[in-house]
Amino acid sequence: MTAGRSRAAGPAEPPAPGPVAALREIGFWLERDRAQTHRVKAYRRAADILAGLDTTELDQHRATRSWQELTGIGPKTAAVIEEAYSGAVPRYLAELRATARPIGAAGAPLRERLRGDLHTHSDWSDGGSPIAEMMRCAAALGHEYCALTDHSPRLTVANGLSAQRLRRQLEVVAELDAELAPMRILTGIEVDILGDGSLDQDADLLAELDIVVASVHSRLRDDRDTMTRRMVYAVANPNVDVLGHCTGRLVEGGRGTRPESDFDARIVFEACRRYGTAVEINSRPERRDPPSRLIQLALDTGCEFSVDTDAHAPGQLDWQGYGCARAVAAGVAPDRIINTRPVDDLLEWTRTHGT
Fold first, then answer.
1. Domain ends where: 99, 129, 151?
2. Sheet (strand 278-282) strand order
3. Alpha carbons 159 and 154: distance in angstroms, whole number
4. Is the separation of the CB atoms in 267 and 298 below 8 Å?
5. Is the predicted pLDDT of residue 185 greater than 90, yes or no?
6. Is the Cα torsion angle 312, 6, 11, 101 positive or negative in sign?
7. How confident is the model over 302-313, as pLDDT tens digits?
8. Are residues 160 and 244 located together in one domain of the fold?
9. What is the CATH number of the domain that holds 57?
10. Model-level pTM?
11. 189 φ/ψ angles, rounded to the nearest 5 degrees
12. Would you say the C-alpha torsion 297, 300, 302, 304 has a positive or negative sign?
């Protein structure tokens, strides 16, 4: 598996990882390839079970080859464990590594220029993995920085963070940031744009964060004037840095499809330009948001962009290639994309844009 800035494949691991690392890496490749959720969970659950055993328990199961006596470990995951303990790369992992292909090959030169990801989720909201696992994967992929942007409180279906929970999360991030240096974990949130255009979190707390992505998640069928007004108010807010998945559309996937919200994109993108709010090119395959015609309109309007994964699992952190390919196809230059900037320049921009 290729490591570092080439970003052609997944996170760096030793050629023959231990059992826990092997199981988690299999989960990574399955997530990356958009495998069914139950398949991914089987390997991640087995890794968590194994990681929770003490040395005596591990030695006992290893001696008796009784891994399947543990609830949550089946024949396939037991085989991976046995092969990893033998010092070999498990066959299934070797197969996944060998068959992995670059994502969004047409966007590869731009992806090389990206320094980080500004829209990711953890199991503190509706992501599937702990913060540490997400951020260690980001570091292994070669990111210089990665923003953690879990949801805001009114999005209860996504277990959005109250101000109190968000402050607790900031403490966790500070500790992990020191551990993962030199990669930087940027503090952030994906804050919901409410019906009147206000933001679903305390303004003083938003001002403390490194990155604020503002997105519409509710009342997606508001009439054109209402939706336009909501989005303009949001992007004009000095705390907002990025307008997330602006149309809210879904074009495929397990959640079905959903049409674009109706809004005056010329007015919204002009507000983004005027107030210095970047337009997100969301890399999720089921979103592909904005549509190509709106990327072109935002480009012509003079907007800046952010190419983000909106990752909810470690393997999805490697999806930036999808967004890069769409940005390249639209002719978006790297200097118009804020996450091509070094972290200090990016944070200076977040402090001063729109002023």
1. 99
2. 116-117, 145-148, 184-192, 211-215, 242-243, 278-282, 305-308
3. 9
4. no
5. yes
6. positive
7. 999 999 999 999
8. yes
9. 1.10.150.110
10. 0.93
11. -160, 150
12. positive
CA dihedral sign of residues 91, 142, 281, 186? positive
Query: Between helices 19-32 and 75-85, what is the axis angle to 10°?
Result: 130
Residue-wise pLDDT for 8-35, tens only, equals 445 554 567 999 999 999 999 999 999 9
The verdict on 72 and 109 lying in the same domain is no
Query: 160 and 66: one domain?
Result: no
Together in a domain, 280 and 216: yes
Contact present, 26 and 96 (Cβ < 8 Å): yes
- Residue 318's contacts (CB-CB under 8 Å, 6 or more residues apart) are 7, 9, 10, 28, 32, 103, 141, 309
SS3 of the chain: the string is CCCHHHCCCCCCCCCCCCHHHHHHHHHHHHHHCCCCHHHHHHHHHHHHHHHCCCHHHHHHHHHHCCHHHCCCCCHHHHHHHHHHHCCCCCHHHHHHHHHCCCCCHHHHHHHHHCCEECCECCCCCCCCCCHHHHHHHHHHCCCCEEEECCECCCCHHHCCCCHHHHHHHHHHHHHHHHHHCCCEEEEEEEEEECCCCCECCCHHHHHHCCEEEEECCCCCCCCHHHHHHHHHHHHCCCCCCEECCCCCCECCCCCCCECCCCCCHHHHHHHHHHHCCEEEEECCCCCCECCHHHHHHHHHHCCCEEEECCECCHHHHHHHHHHHHHHHHHCCCHHHEHHHCCHHHHHHHHHHCCC
State the residue range of the domain holding 273.
105-352
Q: How many domains does the chain have?
A: 2
Residue in the block written with tokens 């390249």: 328
149 and 273, same structural domain?
yes
The domain spanning residue 312 has which CATH number? 3.20.20.140
| 248: amino acid identity, one letter | G
Q: For residues 260 and 222, state if they share a domain.
A: yes
